[in-house]
Amino acid sequence: MNTSTGAIETVYDGYRFRSQLEARWATFFNVLGVKYEYEKEGYRLRNGTLYLPDFWLPNVTLRFDLTPGIWIEIKGQGPTAEESIKCGGLYDVTLRPVILFVGLPTSWNERGNDSGYEFSERGWDNCMGFMECERGTCRHIKIEFAESNYRECPKCKARASEDTPRLIAAYTTARQARFEHNQNGY
Asked: Which residues contact 180 (CB under 8 A, 6 or more apart)?
């Protein structure tokens, strides 16, 4: 058990997660078929702070950028000023976007404005969430600002949505996952 936060360390999918919340996000990625690496690599930020991001998603894109690779940070509450500085600092040293998600895996429609926070070359933004291309042959996953005029898949130009059946199933399964006695499974 992580005594500083009260989080319960959880073994799942071959990893020892620092919290059940992180394990639920790993479940979400697995059900969605998104490859992830947990605590892939630590970085020394330009201000000297050492930082170990939670997840690396090598095949997910941000918005209309077709270059894959996004860092994901998971927090139980909205980002503090210190966490925001760390996420911005991670972008500065890796030049890859950082998305900080708050709470359980939940669609933007369920969560509203308290959703993912983006840190990238654009600075920062909020209301970010997962979207999937609706074309059955593409199914590209991206993280996007949840607004109606950002509904295009960057790969095939078909409509992308935050509530495809696969995304809904992944959110539901992740929220319902049980980790009693550090047993794997969902």
From this structure: none
* CB of 127 closer than 8 Å to CB of 145: yes
Q: What is the C-alpha to C-alpha distance for residues 35 and 53, in angstroms, rounded to an integer? A: 16
Query: What is the percent of the chain where pLDDT is above 90?
Result: 65
CATH number for the domain running over 10-37+49-127+167-175: 3.40.1350
Measured distance CA(127)–CA(19) in Å, rounded: 24
> pTM score, two decimals?
0.90
Domain boundaries defined on the chain? 10-37+49-127+167-175
Count of CB atoms situated within 10 Å of the CB of 2: 10
Condensed to tens digits (0 to 9), the pLDDT of residues 63-93 reads 888 899 999 999 988 888 999 999 999 999 9
Query: Is residue 37 scored above 90 in pLDDT?
Result: yes
Separation of alpha carbons 145 and 134, rounded Å? 17
Under DSSP, is residue 168 helix (H, G, I), strand (E, B) or coil? helix
Res. 136: pLDDT tops 90: no
DSSP state of 84: H
The answer to whether the CB of 10 falls within 8 A of the CB of 21 is no
